Amino acid sequence: MRLRAEEEARLNSILAPIKNDERVQDMKNYTQHGRITTYDHVESVTRLSYWINNRFHIGCNEKVLSIGAFLHDYYLYDWHETDGGHGLHGFSHSNTAKENAKAHFGIGVHTQNVIESHMWPLNITKLPRCREAWVVCLADKYISTKETLLCR
């Protein structure tokens, strides 16, 4: 899965303001799966989502797709430490990430749906309601499985 030079440039132009934010940079301090940081995880999900959209001509809004994918795990805590109230992380982090993204970046309702529904079907009531949300949900499942199985 390689992005073309023009795709890299477009993706970088969409995400530059977000990636340069110090709170987003803080995601490099948290482990997601195995040895993978949360920052590296969301970057992989974003790149795969962008690739899927372009290769399969799905017609997603690139900004909603890219920002939603990059902020889908913007919860800003170590989910491995359950004493901080994160014991039900799988069920709650998507809402935390959505609220953080709303507060810090003023995201719209479609981007909010991408973030809050990425754990479907675990969060059965948080159904992906737009094509961007479906793409990110699928890309996240693939990347998470790959990271969990191969990065131990």
UniProtKB/TrEMBL annotation:
It comes from the Bacteria. Gene3D superfamilies: Hypothetical protein af1432. Residues 38-142 form the HD domain. Pfam families: HD (PF01966). This is HD domain-containing protein.
